[in-house]
Each structure stands twice: as structure tokens, then as C-alpha cells.
Design a protein that fits this description.
The protein is 36% helix and 24% strand. Strands 3, 4, 5, 6, 7, 8 and 9 form a seven-stranded mixed sheet that branches. Strands 1-2 form a two-stranded parallel sheet. It folds into two domains: 23-114 and 213-246, 3-Layer(aba) Sandwich (D-Maltodextrin-Binding Protein, domain 2), CATH 3.40.190; 116-211, Periplasmic binding protein-like II (D-Maltodextrin-Binding Protein, domain 2, 3-Layer(aba) Sandwich), CATH 3.40.190.10. It is elongated. It has 247 residues and is an alpha/beta fold. Strand 1, helix 2 and strand 2 form a beta-alpha-beta unit. Residues 1-29 form the signal peptide. This is Amino acid ABC transporter. Keywords: Signal.
């Protein structure tokens, strides 16, 4: 029979082992991480064999999660649904701008992993645009499906007297510029550069309205979320991200 002191030590050891095992079991039992991303791409106009817009960040996610030895999968969503899923913890991971609506539910990497530009394209005979408020009274075309943040709210507000058209496709927007139906096109760097390789517009120029930094985003409910974010960011910092995105 065990003495009282030995029984106490044995009980303490069992309790300690159980406490240590709990977080490990929680982490091991975690489901594969879903990378949720917008189905409207600011990166490219190219589509895969299923007709889904390609996402260059998928290659980066693959490198990061493979090195972290984590199971994952990806799903495109309309922007509003994607944000809702991240807020509710049904999607655990994304790569996005630092959206204030996600600050309560999600962690962001300390540094951006990449960036893109929102540009306003024009013919060189049109005045340069140094600030989006200078679009007041101008003929502008925007792309359906993009919110453009505060710039989109400004140009869509009738009080600002922007003469706004909206195009369903990038090529249609630039054709409107070429035909002089509009004087300015709001578009992101990647899609616009692809379009201008096939649509010739003499003396075209652009001004950068804003630079959009993109961060790793992780839901706070993921087990040991802070430690995992540090791990993912460390891996990202070790990669040649621009080379991966160019593939």
C-alpha cells in the first residue's frame, strides 16, 4: 500500500501531466486551416481551368504552411461573406489589408508581406490626379465588384459630382478610356498592367492614389494563435516573396 506522502506525489504528477497534455491535444485536434480569400482579385485577370480567378498568394500560402507543417485548404468567397466568416471564426486565415473591422477577431502580422497599388489611369493630355478628391467633376470609370474603400465611397457619392461609369470587366474600362468616353480609370496595378499588354492606348499614364499593404491574418480563436502568427511571419520573412508571387 502506498504511504500518504507517496500517494500525494503520485496524484500531483498525474494532475501535472494532464494539464500539460491539454493544450497539446487541443492543437493536435485543430482542423485544417482554411485560407479564405476574395473571389474578386486585385492581382490578376487570369483564370484557372475552372474559371476561377487565379490568386498569386496561394503559392505563398503553400510555402508558408508547408514549412509550418500545417494542413490547410483555400476557398474564395465574395468579400462580405469572407469578412463574416473571419469574424465568426469559421475561416481561420487570410492575407488582406489591415481592415479595422477585423481587429477584434483577428491577429495581423507585424509587417506587410506584400503590397499593391490603386492607380488612376489617364491619357497624358488629361490633368494628373494627386488626390482622389481631384476626381470631382471628372469622367471616371470604376470596376464593378471593387469597393475601393474610402475612394470608392467618394466617387460613388453623388454629392461629389463625379461623373461615374462602372464596367463589369477591366478590358471594357480601358476601351472606354481609349474611345474617350471617360478620362480616368480606377484600377489595381496587376490587372491593369495585364490589360495594357493587349489594349493599345497611346500616351497613357497613371497616378498612384494609394498603396495597399497586405498582411497575414489569423483568427484569435485558433489554438496558440499568437505563437502561430509569430511562426508564420518568421517563415514568411525567410522567403523570397516577390519571386513566389511572380510564378
Amino acid at each position: 500500500m502506498l504511504s500518504g506522502s507517496r500517494l500525494y506525489l503520485l496524484s500531483s504528477l498525474v494532475i501535472t501531466l494532464c494539464l500539460v497534455a491539454v493544450p497539446l491535444q487541443q492543437a493536435d485536434a485543430a482542423d485544417p486551416i482554411e485560407y479564405a480569400y476574395p473571389d474578386q482579385s486585385v492581382w490578376t485577370t487570369f483564370r484557372d481551368s475552372n474559371g476561377v480567378l487565379k490568386n498569386p498568394l496561394l503559392g505563398l500560402a503553400k510555402e508558408i504552411f508547408n514549412q509550418a507543417n500545417l494542413d490547410w485548404y483555400s476557398t474564395p468567397y465574395p468579400a462580405k461573406r469572407m469578412f463574416k466568416r473571419l469574424k465568426e471564426g469559421r475561416s481561420m486565415f487570410s492575407m488582406l489589408v489591415r481592415a479595422s473591422s477585423l481587429k477584434e477577431c483577428c491577429l495581423f502580422s507585424e509587417k506587410p508581406i506584400t503590397s499593391t497599388e490603386l492607380r488612376v489611369y489617364r491619357r497624358k493630355d488629361a490633368p494628373a490626379i494627386n488626390h482622389y478628391r481631384e476626381l470631382e467633376g471628372k469622367r471616371v470609370v470604376a470596376l464593378l465588384g471593387y469597393s475601393y474603400g474610402k475612394i470608392g465611397r467618394y466617387v460613388r457619392d453623388n454629392a461629389n459630382r463625379v461623373i461615374l461609369s462602372e464596367a463589369a470587366r477591366h478590358d471594357n474600362a480601358f476601351k472606354m478610356l481609349r474611345q474617350r468616353r471617360v478620362d480616368y480609370v480606377l484600377d489595381y496595378a496587376g490587372p491593369s498592367e495585364e490589360m495594357l499588354e493587349v489594349i493599345s492606348i497611346p500616351t497613357i499614364d497613371y497616378d498612384v492614389l494609394t498603396r495597399l499593404d497586405v498582411y497575414l491574418v489569423l483568427n484569435k480563436t485558433y489554438p496558440d494563435a499568437q505563437l502561430l502568427m509569430q511562426r508564420l511571419e518568421s517563415i514568411a520573412n525567410s522567403l523570397d516573396i516577390e519571386q513566389i508571387l511572380a510564378q
